Task: structure prediction
Amino acid sequence: MKATPKQSADATVLAQPVWLVPAFAAAGALLGWLVKLLANWLVGWGWAPLKGPAKLLNSIPEPWLTVLGVTAGVLLGVLVGFIALHESLTVRVSDTRLTLKIRDETRELRRADVGPVFLDGKFLVLLGHHTEELVREPFDLNRAALATAFTTHGYAWAAEDPHQADFHLWVPDTPGLPVGANALLSARAHAMRKTDSGDDVRALRAELNALGLAVRDESKRQYWRLPAPPPDGNGPLRLP
Result:
């Protein structure tokens, strides 16, 4: 979805537009009206799925059936719109600080601590100066506006992940990982197979990041890499 960045004297803010909620409400109203038409159509068939509920709806006299359908659609649309706003990422970029807000969490980073910034599929990724992964959050707004916001404020924008070739497919009991990483990856793999465990998957990623692992997902499979060692090390870490 496209959104116009909000530019102030010292910062650029990218967020879902405020008209998202009324847009969902309008879509819900249309859906509620279409449900009434669908119920009328189903009742006219000799056999049709959900014919019982359709007859129940048609037993409501007009104009109350239309009012009820449209009102329910509007309320559903407003709810979905607020959920979409709550689940979306808001990014505030300035020359010195970066603020990211998603759900009920707000995180601030100093500009001096942020290395390359890029989009990996639908995720905004920020790396540190030793290639460690600082942030990986879903982002579904205008990509060009995002790139412009970061470059305008002096961040290093990359067209793609500069360390993509360093990722390895995780399999159980992979050697060479930090203590506890295999258990966390196993728990995360289990959570990824559930439909209602998004918060768990996200929390386990944060635990893995704290151990130094960057994790990316492809088709329910986890890929990992370790960050580069400190400046006095002997080169980037690799599989043993």
Remarks:
- The longest helix spans residues 20-43.
- Residues 234-240 have pLDDT under 50 and may be disordered.
- DSSP finds six helices and twelve strands in the chain.
